[in-house]
Automatic annotation (TrEMBL):
Signal sequence coordinates: 1-25
Gene3D superfamilies the UniProt entry points to: 3.40.50.2300
Major subcellular site: other
UniProt KW keywords: Signal
Organism phylogeny: Bacteria, Bacillati, Bacillota, Bacilli, Bacillales
All residue ranges annotated as the Periplasmic binding protein domain in the record: 48-305
Protein's cellular compartments: Cell envelope
Any Pfam family: Peripla_BP_4
Organism annotation: Metabacillus endolithicus
Protein name, entry field: Sugar ABC transporter substrate-binding protein
Length: 353
């Protein structure tokens, strides 16, 4: 009976993984048993696997589309899978792509440390790994491409301080399991700490947000408001999702639109809140730039070439060859000259005209 139970449990787990894999795949045709390996059996065609943490956030659809389009334009083939926040599923998806014969894996890790298992598995099968946007830590990672994430935090805090440089501040960060969230906070604190030391500002909250979920950010902000008797003068929120949760919490005590709140990712809802005046700024990280440069890097690696990088980042094990891109602060005054000008968002979407 025990052996039968284990078999049943294993079958259910595999079915769950395969269900997610099938639902999130960008490939129109599944590989048949007769053509196991690459989806295109010509070995000269580079095959790139793209592993996303999630497709539950708006921005990742853009990354997926742009990355896939550029790989195909270069003459390669690509399959994208999303684990939707499940580490075990992401590892299994990596295994499936490796078995299909990918030449390189490009990974947006859900958990920076857990994803080291993906790197280990890939290297055992002579497949290189590129960490996309989020750094895979404690691993022999081959390459990393992202934006200057400490600068993201600097931009967020700087814009907030421009609006108010005294009083009670709250820092509502991202997921602590995401190395980027740690870097965002580090950058923000490089701006805030001198003001804290001078006594100009007091932090009433300094809280990471589990899974980056807006509802968790809202909960954290409500707790901060309760502890401070609803006294808060500014909030540095790590991205547009957490900013949305913060603003919802502020709305319950009549403070939405009355104090500055930062964001990041230039999501449509975040930009709309900037227009409406409930969010002060966001950070624009041109997804077309990172997606196309990552695609070019992956294509070269898949062909056995060594792509050019401009720096290294320590991932708590090695110095990883890295490309860092420049982020841009976006305020109400610069929406048209940034996200609209680049075609990232349209005026019609933003302003409803």
């Amino acid at each position: 009976m025990l052996r039968s139970y284990k078999k049943t449990s294993l079958s259910l787990i595999l079915c769950f993984v395969l269900l997610i894999t099938t639902a999130c795949s960008s490939t129109e045709k599944a590989t048949s048993p007769k053509t196991a390996g690459k989806l295109i059996t010509n070995d000269s065609v580079p095959y790139v696997g793209f592993l996303l943490d999630t497709l539950e956030e708006e921005r990742w659809y853009k990354d997926k589309q742009l990355f896939e389009e550029h790989i195909k334009s270069l003459g390669g083939q690509v399959k994208t899978l999303a684990a939707n926040g499940h580490d075990a599923v992401q590892l299994k998806q990596a295994q499936l792509l490796i078995e299909e014969g990918v030449d390189v894996l490009v990974v947006v890790p859900h958990n920076a440390e857990e994803a080291a298992k993906i790197v280990e598995l890939a290297h055992e099968n002579k497949v290189k790994v590129i960490s996309y946007d989020r750094l895979i830590t404690k691993s022999d990672l081959d390459y990393y491409i992202s934006f200057d994430n400490e600068k993201v935090g600097v931009l967020q805090a700087t814009e907030i301080v421009k609006n108010t440089s005294q009083g009670k501040f709250a820092y509502i960060g991202g997921a602590e399991t995401d190395n980027n969230a740690i870097l965002f906070r580090k950058g923000a604190m490089s701006v805030l700490q001198p003001l804290i030391d001078k006594g100009d500002i007091t932090l009433i909250a300094d809280q990471y947000t589990d899974e980056w979920k807006p509802e968790n950010a809202e909960k954290n902000m409500k707790e901060a408001l309760k502890k401070s008797n609803n006294q808060v003068d500014a909030v540095v929120a790590a991205n547009d999702g957490t900013a949305g949760g913060v603003i919802s919490a502020l709305g319950t005590v009549g403070l939405a639109g009355k104090i500055p709140v930062s964001g990041q990712d230039a999501e449509l809802n975040g930009i709309k809140r900037i227009v409406d005046g409930t969010q002060t700024m966001t950070v624009y990280k041109p997804i077309n730039v990172i997606a196309t440069q990552a695609a070019e890097m992956a294509f070269k690696v898949a062909k056995g070439e060594n792509p050019k990088t401009d720096t290294t980042i320590n991932n708590n094990k090695i110095e990883v060859p890295t490309i860092l891109l420049e982020p841009t602060a976006v305020t109400k005054e610069t929406i048209d000259s940034t996200v609209v000008k680049d075609g990232y968002l349209s005026k019609e979407d933003i302003y409803g005209k």
